[in-house]
Amino acid sequence: MTRQAAVELRNVPVFSGLSRRALALADSLVTPVSFADGDVLCQEDHLGRQAFIITKGSAAVSRGDEFIATVGAGDVVGEMALLGDGRRTASVTALEPVEALVMSAQEFASVRSLPGVDAELHRIAGLREQQLSTAA
Known about the structure:
Blueprint: H1 4-10, H2 20-28, E1 31-35, E2 40-42, E3 50-56, E4 58-63, E5 66-72, E6 76-77, H3 79-83, E7 91-94, E8 98-104, H4 105-112, H5 117-135
Antiparallel strand pairs: 1-8, 2-7, 3-6, 3-8, 4-5, 4-7
Helix pairs in contact: 1-2
């Protein structure tokens, strides 16, 4: 593991239980990206083609004009579209400069095959669906 991403992935709950080898594979499937304050990572109702792991900064999750939650370092966003019908269920907007690791849909599918990752992603998505339905 030669990139800083491997260290950052170890701190993400979804990946914290992975072996060194599995973590190296996950590391090879992500690309670092940066967002400025106010940039939109995910737009509600748009087709989702990527998932993001926030490594630094925070972002607001909203549906319509309603604030749902704040996400930050260690949180995965955009996964619900890739696990579901492909549509974004909420918007995610940077509240400050955000550093993240991005995965395409294909890379995300590969990450899901790592031990325990798919179950954890579905658990998180279930919690998010409850949060969104409560806010509706």
